[in-house]
Amino acid sequence: MLNETEHNVILQYNFISQQLTKYAGILLYILCFFGTMMNILSFKCQTYRNRSCSLYLLIASLFDFLHLNLGPLSNIIEYGFNYNWAIHSIAFCKIKHYLNFIFSVISATLTTFVSIERYILSSRKNARWKYCTRPFAVRCIQFTILFWLIISIPILFCYTRSHHISHNEQFVCSNTFHSFICRLTQLLYICIFNGFLPPIIMMIFSLLTCRNIQQLRQRSLLKSVLIQTTNYQITTMFILQSIKSSFTSLPFAIFNTYLLLTNKMPKSALNQAKENLIYQIVYLLFWSNYTSFFVYMYSSDIFRKQWTKTLRKLMYYLRKSKQSKYYYRTQLVL
């Protein structure tokens, strides 16, 4: 039985967790929504159209957008407003977490491919450049999507509804670690594939690219100034993004590993409330990965100029659409 003091402390932790998810989550969702939409529009432009890295980032942004509206948005609704729209059906619970993982890990995989591609282009071995063409990127994207759709099937068998003491004994949709397979699934898929592996690989290849970047500049002297500047700025953009990804993804992976290792240990209601608060913090930090647009804006003049052009075109089409609707209504009145 809980004494009154401990019960009040638990309520305070739960209240902080809820308010953090509600207000910080909404603000972050708006920034991420805007950023992913701007990434999609910007990477479709002519400046980046023929580069394989822009295709990787475009498709990654599309999956970011899907994950943002399936995972983080439902997390805000569930924990911030105490409305779990996915809990009434076990099948929907399983499918939601299956798709949630797939959208996230495909985006991480494609972004990792960009770091590898930047390294290959900065190397002296010209024979490797054939792996940096747009047709090869298309095949890699197709294989990546098919691979994760198949390999992620075990997630469907591990997620289910369960009571959570930090949510007033309400049902939540989670991995209950009821078998060795489910614990292994959590370790491989959440902690490693979608946690430690992408930022570590990106950091390794970013460091290797930094080592080769002087050679990249020397080779680019033979090309036009625009191509040289574009290649250099794309590389800089992605190096900064790799650094940011490490700070946002690793805490999420570390805390999920901790939850997995301590799952069998007895925990008081107070400790569970503390863990729930920490989980909400690292989860918010994790999906701040989708603010890459602001990193690109900061690090690249070309990206800023292209975004400005894209925004002007968008405003032009919106004004034109509004004028067309007004003209149509006027004609109906006349």
Description:
With 334 residues, this protein is mainly α. Helix content is 78%, strand content 4%. It contains eleven helices and two strands, in the order H-H-H-H-H-H-E-E-H-H-H-H-H. Strands 1-2 form a two-stranded antiparallel sheet. Strand 1 and strand 2 form a beta hairpin. It starts with a helix and ends with a helix. The mean pLDDT is 81.
Index terms:
334 residues; mainly alpha; two-stranded antiparallel ribbon; 11 helices; 4% strand; globular
User: Main sheet, how many strands, which sense, barrel?
Assistant: 2 strands, antiparallel
What is the averaged pLDDT score? 81
User: Strand content of the residues, in percent?
Assistant: under 5%
Number of helical stretches of at least 4 residues: 11
Q: Could you state the order of secondary-structure elements as H and E?
A: HHHHHHEEHHHHH
Physical arrangement of strands within the biggest beta sheet: 1-2
The residue ranges in which pLDDT falls below 50 over 5 or more consecutive positions are none
Task: Based on Cα principal axes, name the global outline.
Answer: globular
Helix content estimate: over 70%
Backbone structural class:
mainly alpha
N→C terminal distance: 76 Å
Number of extended strands: 2
Radius of gyration: 23 Å
